[in-house]
């Protein structure tokens, strides 16, 4: 069976703007991730991920080009599913979504994303990330559907993310960093 074209108009599952409308573009966007820095294809810095030096929790902060916090990613220490909670800005009061490994034992990594309205029951995920750690590649889908909203592959010691039209790229970049962190923890790194 042929894979669906992610940009086709027949593939119309609405995708909410999760972080902000300033991070949504009507065209496909390619981003280059090298270490903790995210740039567009012309070399402009789009985001940076900061790891605080001090603190009791494993946490990362997604910053804009002016070093203002956009999102805070915080690992839940007592979780056996490598659960990360994501908050708006640097404030831990406004949780937007949760990301977790779908099961504790996996051959291929599968991570589920639950939006704020879906976090109490977690019956079905809002987004799914599937990939392989060794290849540092993944695909992000809407829920359990075949609708692809972003793809990531490794090239020249960096990650290349293709984010499809009308998808919040701050949200996708956050998912990519969490996916990488979950894979590192799962691999014992």
From TrEMBL:
Pfam families: LOR (PF04525). SUPFAM superfamilies: Tubby C-terminal domain-like (SSF54518). InterPro entries: LOR, LOR_sf, Tubby-like_C. Gene3D superfamilies: LURP1-related (2.40.160.200). Belongs to the LOR family. This is Protein LURP-one-related 13. It comes from Camelina sativa (False flax). The lineage of its organism: Eukaryota, Viridiplantae, Streptophyta, Embryophyta, Tracheophyta.
